[in-house]
Amino acid sequence: MTGASDNVQAWLDEINHAARTRLGQGQVADYIPALAERDANRFGIAVCTNDGRVFAAGDARMPFSVQSISKIFLLTLALQVYGNRLWERVGMNPSGMPFNSLTQLEAEKGIPRNPFINAGALVVADHFVSAYATPAQHIQDVARSLSGNAGILIDQRVLASEWKHRSRNAATAYLMKSFGNIANEVDDVLRAYFACCALEMSCVDLARALNYLAAGGYAHCLQQQLIAPDLARRMNSLLFTSGMYDAAGEFAYRVGLPAKSGVGGGIVAVVPGRFSVCAWSPALDRNGNSIAAQYALERLSDYLPSSAV
Ligand code: DON
């Protein structure tokens, strides 16, 4: 290993140790009952450098429910197919509201503020349903090929639990449909959206799969340019302003990186030009962001000015 590699592994080992002192704070998401069964005492972190090296510590190879982190895959795929036409139906600004809020939608004629709140992801999922005959299979294939892990699955229990407790997402989708901003049947859109959320991936899988955002759109596992460099830059801008919901400003102050969280407890962050990182621990704060994972990324950002990777 080079000196820089030694550094990264040493950071992750130190962060793993420190972040475990945060276990026991916060709550595992229980509005999706299948998620409430997850062990709150887990913590993992993985880094994937732009030359494809992976560093990991703690429970970094344990699969968890990616939930809203999948909104990055959905947006990437929809932009590939629809390009800038997508922005006629979803905005680019922070919402300053909880991720599942309906209040802005009525006043703003069914156009969600951004693609990372639930309403925005449902509009993106609607495009996805229009573009692919088997959306759930397609998202699973994409997650597998981008991470280089052919074992990635959609957790059918989580999927069934999200479907059973779908009232708020269904209300959101029907409200947008009443404004003409959902083209497909609401049930089809919800099924595709829940399948994305119910993907089970580890920190290592997610750091690898989303490395293209750090690498100017180049996907290592595919060995090809997935999206244009300027689109990777624009997606990072959206993640910076809206990836952490109404905590985006505080996270930007504390960590300063584009990032996306999910209620499964994962957070993916991007250091453009250098590496992608995923930290995970199931217990969440009141905004729906993992407490230990946020703390871990804050510590990681403290190392960055002196890093060679
Ligand atoms: O639709 C939902 O509410 C969940 N499947 C995803 C929400 C989520 O992960 C928000 N992130 N913090």
TrEMBL record:
Keyword flag Acetylation: yes
Pfam families: Glutaminase
Keywords: Acetylation, Hydrolase
EC number of the protein: 3.5.1.2
Catalytic activity: L-glutamine + H2O = L-glutamate + NH4(+)
Domain of life: Bacteria
The protein's assembly and partners: Homotetramer.
Protein family: Belongs to the glutaminase family.
Name of the featured protein: Glutaminase
UniProt source species: Marinobacter halodurans
Originating gene: glsA
